[in-house]
Amino acid sequence: MSRAQNGCRGGGRGTKEPLLIDAVIGKVVKRNRRNLSAAWIDYKKAFDSVPHIWLKKVLELYKVDCTVRDFLGQCMGQWSTILCHLSERMTAAENHIRIRRGIFQGDCLSPIWFCLSLNPLSTLLEDSGRGFQLRRGGTKMTHLFYMDDLKLPPVALILWNC
Fold first, then answer.
1. pLDDT tens readout for residues 83-102
2. Which residues, 6+ apart, have CB-to-CB distance to 114 below 8 Å?
3. pTM: predicted TM-score of the whole model, two decimal places
4. Burial of 53 from C-beta contacts in 10 A (0-12 / 13-18 / 19+)
5. DSSP state of 132
6. Taking every annotated instance into account, which residue ranges of this chain make up the domain Reverse transcriptase (predicted)?
7. Where are any strands of DSSP class E within 83-124?
């Protein structure tokens, strides 16, 4: 998992780490009298929008055991929900709706699987070589993720022509 993803990292402090990083960057910018702009991207209905084919591909990319991949693929094929209306009786065929996109929320695997689905984007941003550098020769912050919330510093914005 990318270091920039703070959403489901073991031993992480959740949103505190990105806030601390923001505070440090703010102090450096103020001390050096530099301008700073950034973009925040929040994916709308993020968990609901990940295609199942991509969820399967991510498991393959990260070399998850094929038995686990097959099991999760079969489970996804059976995901469904049922609509019930109190005043009308519906047949089983009418109220059974298959889930063809997205990932369930509420189980323990979903957050890490979701974060893995966004991890290739983190890799692209990290490999770009662009980012906010606190000091010469220091580490560059290319972006920050907290689950589906993405923050891009200005140099990354230039890279993506924003």
1. 776 666 666 556 678 888 88
2. 8, 46, 47, 50, 103, 147, 148
3. 0.72
4. exposed
5. E
6. 1-162
7. 96-98
